[in-house]
Every structure is written in C-alpha cells, then in structure tokens.
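# step 3/5: fold
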Amino acid sequence: MLSQLSLEDVLKKLRGHHIDTVELGTGNWPGDAHCKLAMLEDRPALAEFRQKLADHGFTISALSCHGNPLHPNAELARRDQEVSRRTVLLAEQLGVPVVVDFSGCPGDGPQAARPNWVTCPWPPEYLDILQWQWDDVVTPYWTRHAKFAADHGVTIAVEMHPGFVVYNPETLLRLRAIAGPAVGCNYDPSHLFWQGIDPIAAIRLLGDAIFHVHAKDTQMYERNLPLTGVLDTKPYTDERNRAWIFRTCGYGHGEEWWREFASTLRMFGYDSVLSIEHEDSLLSPEEGLARAAAFLNQIVMRERPAAAWWV
C-alpha cells in the first residue's frame, strides 16, 4: 500500500494515525521504496531525505534489510551481505542505532544450491548439517559483520524467523554469544506464538538482547492444528485450512495480552517503538494499519508505535 506513495504522502498518512516514527526498508525483501542506499554517494539527496523527515516531525526507529546473507548461492549471499553492509553505513550517517536483518540459512554443505533449515536431530546427518552450518558459515560471517556494525556505532537486530538458523530465543542467544553484544533481536511475537513459545515469558529470557520490536499477531486454529501441527506449509492465503495465520494486533490476542506484553518489555529495559507490520491476509493494508495503530495507541503508555510499510 504505502510503497506506492511518495515519502511525503506516506508521512502525512501516518500522522493521521498518530504515528511519528518509521522503520524503513533499504533493500532485500523489504525493498527500498522510500530509503535508497544510493544516498551514501549522494550528499544532497541524503540532506533532502533528512529534511523531509524533520519537516514532518518524524524519526527513524530502524533501517531494515531482511535478506539471506548465508545463502548457499554465493552470488545471492554477496548481494544480500552488501545490502546489509551498506545499510549499516547509512544508519551511521542518519544516526539510526538499529539495523534489522535475518540471520540467514546456509545449505547442507559447500556444494548446496538451496538453503536447508534443519528442524529435527534424526537421522543423524541432520545434526552434521547443523554443526557445519554454524561452524563453517554462521560463525565466520556474523563475527565479521557484528564487528563491522559495532565499528560504525550500529547494532544488528536479528529477527527470529523460522526458515533461518536463528528462529527462537535459544538460537538468538547462541548467535549473540558468538558475535557479541552488537547483535540482538528484532522481537516479533507473531513468530513465537505459532512455535508454541510464550512471547511474554521469552522477554524475560532475552532481556537487554531486545533491540527493536515488531507489532504483529497470530491466530491459532484449534480445528486444523491437530491435523497439521505448527509446521504448516500451506499458503498463507489458505486461511480456512491452515493451523495458524498472521493477524493484525488484537485479532489473535486481546488488549489484556498486549498490555502485559508492553509492560514486560518495559520491565526488562525496552522503552522504544512497537513497529506495526501488516501481514494479515484477512484485512487490507489500509484497514490493518488503521486498526493496529488505534489498538496500540490505547496500550502504549508514552511512545507511539512506528509503522513498517514495506510488507
């Protein structure tokens, strides 16, 4: 929806929802509709971009470049890594403290062509794949990239997302132990709900490793869940038959849950934005944004939610 509008029109629309902070995509899956990495080589364009945000009273919560920097296709990996590297440099120039990305997922060995997400420990070759991925691919890249980000005064918020090597609190903390304090998480409760992880309890485990938060809900369907389990590969648009779907905030869990979520985040030191991410296939983007903003503005105690419009 918003990617089709000019930056000025986007900011005006968001103001109408009492939003004054934005999360901007710079490439890879989010796209770069309103925040171009080419500004790194174009000082006038960078100055104009800053001025537009200031004129409308907006700040940036994070720059997002979700990709697969560990893709077994070397060309694709280099492309996504370069977008992430340049996003760090742009964040430094703009004074944005956080870059949001995925951890990535390698293949099953050096000759692989496609990513291989390991979800079980048997047969035993799956554990061999997992060890190779972490030792030979994850550790070298993330050690290097985390140092690069830290050298430029930026932190990397890795979104825990199934399909990649970091998908739950345990794997996030494993990556953080390897890469250091410049790596934390972009906390999206919707991806934890369907894995059977309590997102509020997990805040207590992650604590100060939470660098940025996405506001998105998940609705579980008890009728379908016994048939498929949570690893449901049917398209998201097949709502009637899936075990779960992503929903706008308040459509999977009610106000009481979201109040406790916001309060627990604050209790453990997170006092920044809730960035609205719309992936609700039952509501239009316009309707989802409006309803999520109205819902969250009743809940958040001081800050207003940011809007991510790249989905």
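# step 4/5: annotate
The chain has a mean pLDDT of 95.
# step 5/5: archive (pending)
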